[in-house]
Structure formats: C-alpha cells, structure tokens
Structure to design on (125 residues):
C-alpha cells in the first residue's frame, strides 16, 4: 500500500467513475513497457500494463494500479502530459461505455455488409 497524502485522507470519498484501471490513448507507437512502467510508476505501485499492438489498438494501453488513490494521482498528473510530442489522454476505464462503443461498431459493420450484399447504397446519386 502506498503512502497517501494529507489531501487524500481529508477527502476519502472518490467519485464513482474513479477506478484502479486506466485507459491511455495517444501513446507514441514506439513506447515500450519499460517506458510505461517508468512513467506511470511515479504515482504508485502498478499491478499490470497492457500495451496495444495490433492495428486497432496501437497507441493505447491499459494500466492497473494496486491502489485507487495512485490511479487518481496518475490521471490528475498525466492527462495532457507530453510524451514524444504526443499529448496523453488518460481516463478511468468505464466498461459499460467501452462495450457500448464496441457494440455500435459491430452493428455498423453488419449494416455495411448487408448493404453490400443487397446492393443498397446510402450515398445520394
């Protein structure tokens, strides 16, 4: 368990969206696991880091902290942080929001396949 600041102890209640799991976007493609541990490890003990490596996930990562207050400090300090001329977007991972986006993308792909199959176009002629 990491030491908490006086500010953390005064206000132990955190907003409901605050979690130990962070979703990081806009990472440089060349970033390594070691770089991620160095950068995010400044704010507390890390349980796991997963960096996206395929076409759809490159430039993103998940960071899991041991302590929720460490995750909050990382979001507070690293959102907008410049790494290799890229400004990081660090958010709390929200499973419900992320799964809705994936479902919507899947539905759009199905509609496109059906349009191609039946020769339907949405473009004005």
């Amino acid at each position: 368990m990491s030491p908490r600041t006086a500010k953390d102890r005064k206000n132990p209640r955190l907003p409901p969206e605050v979690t130990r799991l962070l979703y990081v976007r806009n990472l440089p493609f060349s970033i390594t696991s070691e770089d991620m541990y160095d950068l995010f490890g400044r704010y507390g003990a890390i349980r796991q880091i997963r960096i996206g490596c395929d076409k759809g996930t490159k430039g993103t990562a998940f960071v899991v902290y041991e302590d929720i207050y460490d995750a909050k400090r990382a979001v507070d300090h690293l959102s907008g942080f410049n790494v290799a001329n890229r400004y990081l977007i660090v958010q709390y991972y929200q499973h419900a929001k992320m799964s809705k986006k994936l479902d919507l993308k899947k539905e759009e792909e199905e509609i496109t396949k059906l349009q191609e199959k039946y020769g339907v176009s949405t473009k004005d002629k």
Q: What stands out?
A: The longest strand covers residues 46-51. The mean pLDDT is 83. The chain has four helices and six strands.
